[in-house]
Amino acid sequence: MNHTVLLPEGLSDPVLVQNILGGEQRFFEQIIRRYNQRFYRLGMSILHDNVEVEDAMQVAYINAFRHLADFEKRSSLGTWLTRIMLNECLARKNKKQRLKITEEIHYQNFTTMTTPASLLMNKELSGTLETAIAQLPEKYRMVFVLREVEDLSVRETAEVLSLNEANIKVRLNRAKTMLRDNLQGYMKEHVYAFHLTRCDRIVDQVFKALQIDRPLGQA
Fold this sequence. Notes:
Layout: H1 13-21, H2 28-47, H3 50-66, H4 77-98, H5 103-111, H6 116-134, H7 138-149, H8 154-161, H9 165-190, H10 196-210
Helix pairs in contact: 2-3, 2-4, 2-10, 3-4, 3-10, 6-9, 7-9, 8-9
């Protein structure tokens, strides 16, 4: 059965829930797209595995859809959904631990890969950090490099720069704050980013599993 009418976008969570429970199941697509990024970042922070995270996202959405009528509105829909995703991820992590596949081993394997893709990622991250450090005012940059890169003590750094130790501590804290601010935009855009094509895939797979028709042209 074809559907040619596009669904209205930008509806609030309560309205979407009301429409879905009223029989307009296709509105669930907007909920999926709204929370995909949050689900993905949460999943990666726990499972560290792209494929498993996407699988967990699908299961979480399916569970949420099937229990949407049980949503009691004591918290926001986003909080309720996030808890479902969190529980799914923790269950998967616990299953791994029962199989003696520890998170420490997984993390070591992940960070020691030397594929071209991982080398490129490391190079990009290194370049981004170097650029951020270079943008620091000189008096903060020197302290940061000596303390954090060259690993000099507070006393040694103070001696090198002819400053007292209190000034070194203040400048280092200021440098870290400035770096965090400079890198914040990069992190939000690139760290665990969930792009449109992947968002489309999650929507398609969830709707297929739930056997819900999507309107033609809905992106």
